[in-house]
Design a protein that fits this description.
The chain has 7 helices and 5 strands. By secondary structure, it is of the alpha/beta class.
Length: 223
C-alpha cells in the first residue's frame, strides 16, 4: 500500500511517518518549501526522509510570502514566551496552510495510486490552529473523494492524523518506542543563524514540555 506523508522535518510529522511505516505503508514523502523563516526544517526533512526509508521524497516550492499574514512568512515578530494554551490564534498561523498542503498531497496521491495521506497535526498540545482540528481532517477527507478523478471513479481516500488526540509527551513516547532519533528533527519557529532553537517560541515550549512529561531528554539539547 502506498501512502503520502507530509514531512516538515518536525517531531510530529516524523512520528506520523513512522506510524505509517509501522502499519505497512510504502511512503512517499512530501515537503513544502513555502517561504518559511525556519528553513532549517527543510534540511531536517531530508534527514528524516532518509532515516525513515521513503520510496520518494519530493520537495515542492510554493512561496506563501506573497500572501503573508503570518510571522512565519513575513517580518512580523514570532511570539515568545506566550501562554501556549491560550484560546487566541497566534501570528504563527499560516493562512490555509494545511488545506494547501493536503491539496498538493492529494494530487500526488492520485499519480502514485495512493489512497492514504498522513499528516502530523495535533489537537491537544498545539497553538490553536484551526486546520489542526478533527473537524478539518474529516471535512478534507470528504472533499478528497469529491474533487478527484479517482474519487469519482469509486476510490476512497483516507486522511490519517494519527497524532490528533495525543499529547506531545504521548507522541514522543510513541516515537521513541518506534526507535526514532529526534535529534534529526527541527521544531523552532525562530532559530538563530546557525539553526539553534530559540527556546521561547510556542513550538520550542511545547517540545520542551513534551520531553519533560515523557521523562526523556531532547537530543537537540544534548549536543
Amino acid at each position: 500500500m502506498n501512502a503520502i506523508v507530509l514531512l516538515s522535518g518536525g517531531l510530529d510529522s516524523y512520528t506520523a511517518a513512522a506510524i505509517a511505516r509501522s502499519e505497512g505503508f510504502s511512503l512517499y514523502a512530501l515537503t513544502i518549501n513555502y517561504g518559511q523563516r525556519h528553513a532549517q526544517e527543510l534540511a531536517a526533512a531530508r534527514r528524516v526522509a532518509a532515516s525513515i526509508g521513503v520510496i520518494n521524497h519530493q520537495e515542492i516550492t510554493l512561496d506563501l510570502r506573497g500572501i503573508g499574514g503570518s510571522s512565519l512568512t513575513s517580518d512580523i515578530p514570532v511570539p515568545r514566551d506566550r501562554d501556549v494554551m491560550a484560546t487566541d490564534i497566534p501570528s504563527t498561523y499560516v493562512p490555509a496552510r494545511n488545506t494547501i498542503f493536503l491539496a498538493i498531497a492529494l494530487g500526488w496521491a492520485e499519480t502514485v495510486e495512493a489512497r492514504d495521506v498522513f499528516i502530523g497535526v495535533n489537537a491537544l498540545d498545539y497553538s490553536g490552529y484551526p486546520d489542526c482540528r478533527p473537524e478539518f481532517i474529516a471535512a478534507f477527507e470528504s472533499l478528497a473523494s469529491l474533487a478527484t478523478r479517482a474519487g469519482v471513479e469509486g476510490a476512497r481516500f483516507h486522511i490519517h492524523a494519527p497524532l490528533i488526540a495525543l499529547s506531545k509527551a504521548e507522541i514522543i513516547r510513541r516515537g521513541l518506542a518506534l526507535g526514532l532519533d529526534y535529534g534529526l528533527t527541527h521544531s523552532c519557529y525562530d532559530p538563530d543563524s546557525e539553526g539553534h532553537p530559540c527556546g521561547h517560541c510556542d513550538s520550542c515550549v511545547l517540545r520542551a514540555k513534551g520531553f519533560t512529561a515523557a521523562g526523556a531528554k531532547d537530543p537537540l539539547l544534548l549536543r
